[in-house]
User: Which sequence fits this backbone?
């Protein structure tokens, strides 16, 4: 069954609340252009040992929204399912031959539709998040070498100039990996919605559900974000690793990190959706 023919989706997304999906897409597009312009300007004015204030604020905001969005999505899913499960329409749906798969997928899609403004904000902040992560990686390299080798201020500027002008393969790889991490963190809202739906269907009306789901999604988001970001940062900052591994292997490592960041949320989302269907089937 197509998701748009799902009776739950049709009923729960019928009300035309502002903003529409089209308006949310335009919001994401506008925020993305604005964030890219700010981060690009900040990169051009970037000092050897510090980030521009506007870039720092934008990066902090991007990280805050990215980390908090999956827990918020799970809470929205729990509230949506809890309210709808106590309605007469839900009882009528249960009298039909509606399968658990259709039920869970309908609630998950309706949840993501409810948080469309949050998802649009995440898309708009993706360029700032990716560029900011690359900037931080460069700064870590500068600070590390200045501390270890006791460079003077002049040599720090020279080191920054050299690190900014290295082989494009060594800059493109981390940049693409950081963008993949940003997209992957955005995709964690799918498993977060599925987790909230599954827990709400399995343990209806229990307050503990509203605590477990946000905590689990927050921990998973932090684990993936911190581990992948630190890994990319270390590989980008350590010039010895690039020399040791060589350009082909270095690019392969960055590609592997990018693929993992993109595919892990999809695997988690599919797995949580199947698990939620099993929970919905249990009495």
Assistant:
């Amino acid at each position: 069954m197509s998701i748009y023919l799902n009776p739950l989706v049709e009923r729960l997304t019928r009300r035309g609340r502002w903003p529409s999906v089209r308006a949310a897409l335009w919001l994401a597009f506008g925020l993305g252009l604005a964030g890219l312009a700010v981060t690009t300007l900040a990169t051009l004015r970037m000092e050897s040992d510090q980030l521009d204030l506007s870039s720092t604020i934008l990066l902090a905001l991007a990280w805050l929204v990215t980390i908090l969005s999956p827990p918020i999505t799970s809470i929205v899913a729990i509230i949506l399912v809890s309210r709808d499960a106590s309605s007469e329409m839900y009882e009528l749906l249960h009298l039909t031959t509606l399968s658990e798969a259709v039920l869970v997928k309908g609630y998950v899609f309706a949840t993501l539709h409810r948080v469309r403004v949050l998802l649009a904000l995440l898309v708009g902040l993706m360029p700032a998040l990716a560029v900011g992560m690359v900037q931080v990686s460069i700064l870590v390299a500068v600070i590390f070498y200045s501390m270890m080798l006791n460079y003077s201020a002049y040599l720090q500027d020279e080191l920054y100039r050299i690190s900014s002008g290295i082989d494009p393969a060594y800059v493109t790889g981390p940049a693409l990996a950081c963008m993949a991490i940003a997209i992957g963190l955005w995709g964690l809202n799918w498993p977060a919605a599925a987790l909230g739906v599954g827990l709400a269907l399995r343990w209806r009306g229990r307050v503990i559900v509203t605590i477990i789901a946000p905590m689990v999604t927050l921990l998973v988001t932090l684990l993936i974000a911190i581990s992948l970001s630190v890994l990319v940062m270390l590989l980008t900052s350590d010039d010895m690793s690039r020399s040791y591994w060589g350009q082909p292997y270095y690019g392969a490592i960055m590609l592997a990190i990018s693929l993992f960041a993109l595919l892990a949320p999809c695997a988690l989302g599919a797995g949580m959706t199947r698990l939620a269907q099993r929970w919905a089937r249990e009495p």
